[in-house]
Amino acid sequence: MKLIKYTTVGGILLMLASFIWMGSSSDSPQPCFLVVSDVHLNEQQHMYSAYNGSGDAGYDLWGAAKDKIASILKDRKPSFILLLGDLPMHHALPADSDMAKSEISSVINSLKFIASEHNIPLIYAPGNNDIPGHHNGVFSASHFRAYTDTDNPDQWAMAFGNVQYPANGRLSDLGYYSVWPLADHKLRVIVLNTVTYLSKTNDTSQFIWLRSQLRNAQGLGEKVLITMHVPPGSSYDGKASWRKADVCLQEVFIRSIEPYRRSIVGILTSHTHKEGIKVYQDSQGKPMDIGLSIPGIAPGHGNYPAMELVSYDSSFKLEDVFTFYHTYSADSVTDQTNITKWGDQSISFIRDIVHRPSGTSLSDLIISSAPDSVIAWQRRTETILNEAGPKRYDSPKVVSVTDGCE
Predict the structure, then answer these.
(1) pTM score, two decimals?
(2) Count of structural domains within the chain
(3) Which one of 89, 225, 277, 383 has the minimum C-beta count within 10 Å?
């Protein structure tokens, strides 16, 4: 039985566009949050060597990314930053090596400093390259506390800044937790550790906890944003991202969130380095929730380096996605002027891809649209945008999240 389908719009929705999005200084910034993922920092090498090694980000590209993040925080004033994992370079494994510790520490502490300058929280979800053992999903908060400049040993190591935690929200040794990033407690961010599902497991305890969090949030009238690194559904190689043992974890996940669809405003994932819009369907095949696939800073999957700014309305419904991308290409990797300056290029999904007026709700548009329309937007994106760098695989267009469950 098919439980979720998602449609990726844009594949790599970050290439070349004539539109440069910048807010007017007289405008009141629209509520939003910033999402960064898949940095894969090689802090010992510049971009030319880092890229040719395994498609990682050199220290020069990461420097440009940090400058861009600081600029976005200054101009657009996001409410919080989400960091969706995979911080060290690929060859820094295992994640408890000195090299991996140094690179994870560098990324987290840099973003902690930038966020603290603007008095906003930084919320982190573990990636498969961040965890000792890589794919076994065993997370240790004490492992992170050792190199994230945490003065208080009891301080939660994965959310930084002025945040508070709902009841049973701090599960430090398991890598998943929930947090209120805003003072009014109207939005709950739930961070899942889906790295554990890269290995076969029948452990559904995380979803039991997820249901309890969703039930509690719904009872309090809160909206919920679910974040994770490894997404459910088919990966770029056509195989299920979450490995199936005796239990179909994708089915457990969708049945866990289905009763609380009205509380969930979005599901954010990364891992593939590709950007896209996803539609999660309920057990009856009806559109239920919108998902965003977040692009990577590292360009090794054929993507331009990018980060996303997600705007929302007063009820936390997602309104638009702005992708700020770097015009990096493999052909110009030796040009340091090209690498160290991020630039002002960006794409608005609502304005540039679907051609709707500002104020159109992204959530309502995607959930209410026929699959053919979403696929048409995919094709339009591919027509408008040009991909750069080596393309290792095609991003999925329409796949079932229950692949591998039957």
Answers:
(1) 0.88
(2) 1
(3) 383
